[in-house]
Structure formats: C-alpha cells, structure tokens
Amino acid sequence: MSGCARVVTHVDGLTSVSVVAITLGRMTATLAPDQLTVANRVITSLAGEGARLREDQLRAVTALATTPDASSTGARVLVVQATGWGKSAVYWSATAIIRAGGGGPTLIVSPLLSLMRDQVAAAGRGGLSAATLNSSNVDEWSAIEAQLRAGDLDVLLVSPERLANPGFGRRVLDALAGSLGLLVIDEAHAVSDWGHDFRPDYRRVADVLRTVNPTTPVLATTATANARVTEDVAAQLDAGSTSGPTLVLRGPLARKSLHLNVLDGLSPVQRYAWVAQSLHQLPGSGIVYVLTVADADRLVEAIRAVHGDALPVAAYTGQLDADRRHELEDALLRNEVKALVATSALGMGYDKPDLGFVVHVGSPPSPVSYYQQVGRAGRALDDAVVMLLASQTDDRIWDHFATATIPDPDKMRDLLAALEDAGEPQSVVQLEAATRFRRTRIELMLKQLAVDGVTDRTPDGWVVTGTPWSYDAEHYDGVLAVRRREADIMRSYIAGRTCLMRLLTESLDDPQAADCGRCSVCRGTLSEGLSGTVDDEVVRTVTSTLRRSAQTLEPRKMWPGGDFGRRGRIPADLLAAPGRVLAHADAPEWVEVLAAARNGDERALAELGDAAVATLSAWVRETGVRADLIVSLRLTGTTLAETLAEHLRAVGKRDGGTFPVRIGDPPADATGAVEAAYWRDHLGDPPEVSGRNVMLVVDANGSGWPITLAAAALREAGATAVLPLLIHRTV
User: Fold this and answer.
1) Statement to judge: residues 124 and 30 lie in one domain
2) Helices H / strands E in the chain, number of each
C-alpha cells in the first residue's frame, strides 16, 4: 500500500496478519514481531482476549511506529472512520510501541473534558500512564508537569485552548519539542474552518507541528469529515513533511445498529410533551439533545411533571462544574438515569457502548454535527433508536450558527487599530472599553487573528505582530455557502426525501452510502413502539407546569462604566428588587402565545394575563411584598406591556401609569456600557411614585439595562421598592 495514495479503503473484520508492509516515501516499513506483541497486548487489555488490530488500524500503527530515515519527517496519518471503529486503539498501540522502543511521550490534543477523562482511564487499561492538564485540575498541574519532565508519563492530554496559553507553551511544549514521541490531533475536523464546529484555538496545532522534532509522527482522527474537510486537514499535515503525502485511511460511515426517525410538524411544547410521553418506551438509557441551556432545564421539569421520580432524568450543560458533569456522566454509564437532557456539551468523546437512544429536540444546523451526536448510540448494540423532533423555529438558530464565526472586517480593523494605538499588551477588558464590542466577540476575533499570525497572546496581554491582515471575502463566502448547503441537507433530512442514513453518509462523501432499510423513510413508519402523535393531556400537563414556574430576574448590581460614565456598585437605595420572568427566550410553552399576543389576539392576551396573575400571587406569598402601583415600561413596538399592566391593575384594583420611553433602535452586539448609555438617553421622567411599592411591567428585554435604569429612576423619585415583571426575556 503506497503512502502516496490519498485514500486507503477500509477493511472490516479482525486481521490475522502478523506483519503488514507499508510503503512510506522511499522506505518499506513493517512491524517487528516484538512490536506486534506490544500492540496485541494493548488491544487485548482494551477489547478482550483474542482481539487484534484490524488491517487499517495496523496500517496506521505501522506507519506511526516506524522510525523515518535521515532525510524524512515522521509519518503523517489521517484516520476518518465511523464512531466506534477504534481510532483510539491506533494511538494507544502506537504509543506503547514507541515508548517500548525508548521514544518520548504522546501529546494528545483533545476537545472536551469528558473525552479527556475517558481517555486517561482507557490508557490506564492499556498499561499506559496518562494525565491531563485542563481547567478542572489546576492544582495538579505542577505535579503532572514534573512527571512529564521526569519521563514518567506516557501520554499527556491537553485542550486546544491550552495550546494557546503562553505559560503552557513555555513550560510544557518547549520541554517536549525535541522529545515528543507522537502527536495526536483528536476530532481533527475542528482543525479545518470548513468543519462544522471550527474552533480557532485548534489551529494552534499547526504551531506545534512547526516546533516539534520533524521526526515526530503525527496522527489525526475524526469520524465526521467530508471530502473537503479531509483534504484540508491532510494538506495541513502535509506542510513541511518530506515523508510523502499524508496517509488517509477512510472507511464506510453507515452505522447498522441505528434506527433513524424524523417527526416533523409538532409545536415547541408538543415536542417537550412527546419526549415526556415516549421516554419510557425508548430502549435502555440515552441522551436527549436540546439546543440551549434553558431547554435542558425546562425539559427535565416537563418530564418530571409527567413521571415524577419514576423516570430519573437530569440536565447536562456546559454551565455545570466539572465535578457535577462527571457525576452525571457516571450516572448514565451505570444506567442510574433514564436520560441526560443535554446541550452539545455532552458530545465528542463520551463513550457509553450500550447507549440505547439519542433524541434531538431541535435539529443541529449541520448533517456532520448531527451524525456525530447520533453516533454516541448503539456502539455495542444490535439496535438503537435515534429520533429527530424538528421544527420550523430551528431555521433561525441555524442562521445564527452559519454567521457566528464569520469575521466582520470593519470590526477586525477597529480591534487591530485599538491594539496598535495602545502600544503595549492589552487585556480583553481593556479592548472591550476601547472598542465597545462585547467581550465574547473580542475573544473570538483575537483567536481568529492569532490563527493568521496577526496577533499574539503574551503573558502580559494581546499584541499585534506586524503581520498585515486582510479580509479573505472569497474564502468566507465559501464557508458561508457550505454552511447554508448543510442547512439545506438537514431540511431534506427532515422532509424525508430519501433514506436518512444514506443522506447522512452521502453528506460526508461516503462512497459506500446506501439505503439502510431501517429508518423511518425506508420503513414508512417510526420505530416500533413510538407514536407520531402526542396525547393532549400530556401537553396540558407540561404547559401548565412550565407556565407556573416563573424564573427569577436578578437585578444588576454594578454600573457599567465606559460610555455610560458611572461605574462601581449600584447603591442599595437605587436597586430593583429581584423580579420575575414569564417567558424565557424560546420557552416552548409561550412561543406561540407570545407571537399571537403581540398581534393583539385576545385569547393569547388572556392566557398571558392569567399567568401574570398567578405569578404575582405566588410572588406575594413568597416575599410578603405587595405592589401599590403598577407601571408599564414599553421597550418594543407592541402594546404588550401596557395591556398586561392594565389587566393586573383591574384584577388587583391598583392604580398605575406609564414610564415614558422614546422608542428607537437599541444597539446590537454592543457592550453593556454602550447599551446602558442608550437607554439612559431614551428614558423619560418617571411617574409620581413617592412612598409606593411599584410593579414595573416590561414587555421584552435581554440585557436588563433599561430595567436597571428605570428602577433607579423610580427609586430616586421616592419608590420604596421596584418589582420588575418581565414578560419576555429575549436572551
């Protein structure tokens, strides 16, 4: 098999071949018998007695474990194989052989904490000593780095973000540069900005490739790369290599155990109800994916409303601390919960071979990311159920993801100008004040500029390197076009125009894509035991439960400074009290009602009014504080705030009024200081409120700044308390 060949066909089954020959550049490589013994020992410890490397696995290990001649760099290998194929077996076997031959440790660049934890455990089962440096084990870094310097570690796992840290680079990467035995780039599709979840820090891997000893072999692995991503990643691995083109081992991606299903046409609250109604019928334990943190929390509440404690579930999101995430991962592994309701934070790397189902409430924007997530199911089962509950509201989220990482050239130039004008290293906070961009936007922009070598992160802050930057419009137009085509593929998937497995694998350019005969399109019906309808009583239970659980609106406690001027803590006598939120973001129990109410639908307005009265009653019982006046604050073009305030005044027999606002166009994607300054300039004088508790009814807002400023003005006007009731929190 020639190393000049770009693609090697996957061969199924276990191999009984004792020695595999592979041509790399000008030399023919084989595994020596003692090396094969080491590899077999590792595989046996991981997969059981009698297990052996498959032929493609053995090809990869042979290439990686072969010492190059004096004129060549180490081998470059890219493995694109389905989830569960055994990509990790390649780097554990290669590491064991390299270490047994006196070589240095393996550095694995890995994307998620859950993956790292699983990989450390797997390495231990394979007889290798492994450790990870990440944000959850800072206290252990010094000891781990000492082990690394002493040669006591076989494997070190790090996140791509860790590569971007100058302190880490100085202490660890410089120490490894001349002695690294193997570099592994896991989930390598993220190296490419054609990949579905491009992470700028992943491009730091290219910096490592330039600094390591050129004889160090490099392995990149992924289950989710189409032809374009594969070519891009292979080309990056080729750069500077003299051992010939990257060896690409690509296999069929269809998963025979998966029964794919799509159910379209349900309303947002009906999707929640379908999960609550159907969960007990799904096999084993599994994952229910949602698009937002709020969805995760509220869907768990909906399931509990229907099943109580009889069907244990829990929410899993990136907002949980590492210890809690580990507890939940372990609970699912031990089948102590029926399901984790998770955002994409539970994705790459989570390994539960007997995961019985994956349900999506809302579709990811890409068939590549969808394939990756459903690939968690059925790895060691003959049958696993996959269900997508689609909705037209997903399109808006897809549009956001399509453009979220595309740089704005004007903002890029403004950021670079701020760095150049400063003349010294700048923190993100300093750049936020100078540019008035949101902090999260600045962090992404700096990483993107760093990928192009235009900025650099030093221990003292961010600096410009002197390398000019230009906006590559043709490239980014291509990226955007690819993402929109991917969204179109997901629309076709939802519409059921062809076999679902065929469509997914064709989107990954699998030449062996074929009809599966098992999906809801091939069968003409959903998997056995699943219904395409939702019981009305379940919908009512879910709706009423979620509408009763108004969220707390915590008041802002600090002035923003910057353009606003005032900074520091907001005095206690100007603060709003903790308020309440009726509808958060795209809350499924409210999304249709809100749309109708904004158009003046009387039935929808009555539903909102009833919910507000119930919320107000519970609020009074909880705090003992009653509103004397009810004042509306209209921030949008609708009359929703005034209508609801009038209803509450009529029910509660209270007086009130309107807080005047000059309606305009609030700044988008601006810092808190800019937005606060805008609302300061657009709020009028408050009504007469002296000596009264004021309920402030607000139609829609996300930042909280107009509520904060209106509350301060009401308190300055003599209000004894301000109780905000926000109808719709938009973000």
Assistant:
1) yes
2) 27, 26
Domain annotation covers residue 475: no
C-alpha neighbours within 13 Å on the C-beta side of residue 250: 20
> Exposed e or buried b for every residue in 513-548, given b needs 16+ CB within 10 A?
beebebbbbbeeebbeebeeebeeebbebbbebbbe
Provide DSSP, 630-665: EEEE--SSSSHHHHHHHHHHHHHT-EEEEE-B----
Q: Alpha-carbon distance 624 to 74, whole Å?
A: 72
Domain tally for the chain? 4
pLDDT interval class at 418 (50, 70, 90)? very high
> Are both 202 and 313 inside the same structural domain?
no
Q: What is the mean pLDDT of residues 622-630?
A: 93
Contact between 637 and 702 (Cβ < 8 Å): no
Please report, for residues 173, 200, 220, 235, 708, the alpha-carbon distance to residue 163 in angstroms, rounded to integers and kept in the order given.
Answer: 8, 11, 16, 21, 40
Q: Is 678 left (phi over 0), alpha (psi -120 to 50) or beta?
A: alpha
DSSP-based three-state secondary structure for 28: strand
Angle of the 87-100 helix axis to the 113-125 helix axis, nearest 10: 50
Same domain (yes/no): 496, 612: no
Mean pLDDT, range 344-348, rounded to an integer: 75
On whether both 338 and 442 belong to a single domain, the answer is no
Range of the domain at 459: 408-470
Lowest mean pLDDT among 260-264, 275-279, 584-588: 584-588
**The 3-state secondary structure of 7-21, one letter per residue:** CEECCCCCCCCCCCC
Q: How far apart are the first and last CA of the chain?
A: 54
Tens digit of each residue's pLDDT (9 = 90 or more) over 443-500? 989 988 987 889 988 889 999 999 999 998 988 888 888 888 888 999 999 999 899 9
Q: Average per-residue pLDDT in the chain?
A: 86
For 203-222, what is the mean pLDDT?
78
Tokens 């076989």 — which residue?
154
Predicted local distance difference test score (pLDDT) of residue 87: 86
pLDDT at 714 over 80: yes
701 strand-pairing partners = 729
pLDDT per residue over 92-102, tens digit each?
A: 999 999 999 99
Q: What are 661-677's pLDDT values in tens digits? A: 998 888 777 788 889 99
| Distance, CA of 706 to CA of 714 (rounded, Å) | 12
- Domain end point (choices 513, 541, 569): 541
Q: Are residues 584 and 720 located together in one domain of the fold? A: yes
Positive or negative, the Cα torsion across 589, 590, 595, 601? positive
Cβ neighbour number for residue 643 with a 10 Å cutoff: 19
Q: Is residue 3 part of a domain?
A: no
What pairing do the DSSP bridges indicate for beta strands 182-186 and 247-250? unpaired
For residue 398, which of 439, 438, 370 has the smallest C-alpha distance? 370
Dihedral (CA of 386, 387, 392, 393) sign: negative
Q: Report which of residues 73 and 415 the model is more confident about.
A: 415
Q: How many CB atoms lie within 10 A of CB 256?
A: 13
> Cβ neighbours of residue 35 under 8 Å, at least 6 residues apart?
65, 97, 100, 101
> At which residue do the structure tokens 């973001």 appear?
585
Note whether 311 and 425 are same-domain residues.
no
CA separation for the pair 85, 251 (Å, rounded):
9
